Amino acid sequence: LKMSWFWFYRPLHLLMAACLCHSIKAPTTNSQQSFKTDLFNFYHSLILADGKETTIHLLKDIPKRYYFVMEEGRALAPFTVTVTPCDVPIEWSILVHKASASFLGKAARGDHGTQEVSKSQKAPSMASTIFNYKGNSVETYMGMSSHSALYMLEFLSTERDTHITVYLTTDTTSGHLYPELPMDPRIDVIGIGHTTVTLTWKHSPSVSQHRENIQYCLLVNEKHNYKSLCAAETAIRSSGMKLPPTLALSLSPYLLEPQQVMILSNSELSIINKVSSGEVRQICMGTKNTYTVPNLSPSTQYYFDVFVVNLLTNASAAYTGTFARTLEEPEPKVMELKDGKVIQVVLDGKTQKFYSLQYQARHKKIQFTFQLCHGQVQVHITKNGKTVASENISGLRYFSLKGKLLDTYLVQLRSTEESNSSVKVQVSSHFHKPLFPLLPESLKIKSFSKLRTCNSVTIAWLGTQEESKYCVYKKRIKDDQVWVELQNADRCSGPESRHKSEKVLCKYFYDINLQRAVTTETIKGLDAGTLYLFDVYLFGPSGIPIRYHSKVVKTRKKC
């Protein structure tokens, strides 16, 4: 067996050497280095495998050469060469060295120990370029060859280091490594929505022949189309991800990186790659040739590429990519604000869309009042299209603005949390009739640890210079309820939402001297070693309450 391989490759090596010697002049003193370089390149070129896809890495500005000859004994035979650039455009060409059949025979029968070809043995040889290409598209050359011809493929990248795949086959009867594309390989856009795009494409002939081994994979991104799956995977990796080369083909969950999300739904596998330029989605849907891409952003241009994939060989062919722009998001409905009227708005935390309110001024001076009920809310106010206020609010917030009669104010509200938020809003030109009571410097409730007993707790809170009504409520809670109670507290709800048994007392007080505007209260009749939630409500002239920040206090276990 070793001898048979020796006799197969020996004529090939001799023929290659002869072709090289014929194409290179005898070295002179001035061309010694150039001749050595050519010999180095020759002996470091590789034989291209037949019937197998080969990955070739190219260094910038350094050409790489591969050779192949036809199997001995075949007069004329077809062959194909398919080259797939995986990144930047490359240059590649096919050269043929033609020599006589008698020379090949002499080479095969020559002295086994001879390392060079004599002048009498040298046959006429001529190298000619039969194909060349420059670009980043997948390109296939089909030709006819004789056994006395040596072919050289030369590849060059002038932009940067890159890699390509090359597939050579001389057997055109055993089927195709690459799935076939239809006569019309275009992708048609048949529907566009605000967040969806529907695509369709003609079936690959390979689907009817090898349905169980073929599937379609769709690539969606916001940057550009890709001419091969190899190029797409390279782009994702270059964005900072370690994307396995076979990810889109094998679709193995254990290959996913932390920046990837896999979604399996209705026999469709989607992989979302989070990259610096946005997200790249890979969706494989079996042999369906119509697909609606969901969850897109409105008014955004997307690029769509469909690849038909042979699951047995991991080879793929690319349809002609397309692009589409989703429809603009419809203008949000604007609610009119009425002077003096209070409305409560619930904001969606998942979408974080703006909720819009509009008000046309009937006085030069107006005041917007916002009371945060739950969550976190961003407020943005414009007057005649110009921003006059923008901030995240907490508690109670007033905005006093000056303008002209009939100025148009637009208020936009948005939740800044993933959970829903809510806020009360009022606009009024009647400053002398405030809706909400005058507030103290702080809405915190203080408890005195030293005054705690087994059945009583002493708390204190600040008041104002305006006589107001204060009501205290208590609620018995468990240790694991503390966080939930504090997080879910609705700061806009009044005592009407509380059970009657939770009411402790109501009292009036005020003090002209703000330094002394503080009151204390001792709540008795409590259980030992028990957690209690205390709330204080402040009522102003309008009767709308303001809730102080809840306070959790635990009575002493032993006294």
TrEMBL record:
The keyword Repeat applies. InterPro entries: FN3_dom (IPR003961), FN3_sf (IPR036116), Ig-like_fold (IPR013783), NDNF (IPR019326), NDNF_C (IPR045805), NDNF_Fn(III)_1 (IPR055271), NDNF_N (IPR056225). GO terms for cellular component: extracellular region. Residues 1-23 form the signal peptide. It comes from the Eukaryota. Secretory protein that plays a role in various cellular processes. Acts as a chemorepellent acting on gonadotropin-releasing hormone (GnRH) expressing neurons regulating their migration to the hypothalamus. Also promotes neuron migration, growth and survival as well as neurite outgrowth and is involved in the development of the olfactory system. May also act through the regulation of growth factors activity and downstream signaling. Also regulates extracellular matrix assembly and cell adhesiveness. This is Protein NDNF. It comes from Pandion haliaetus. The gene is Ndnf_0.
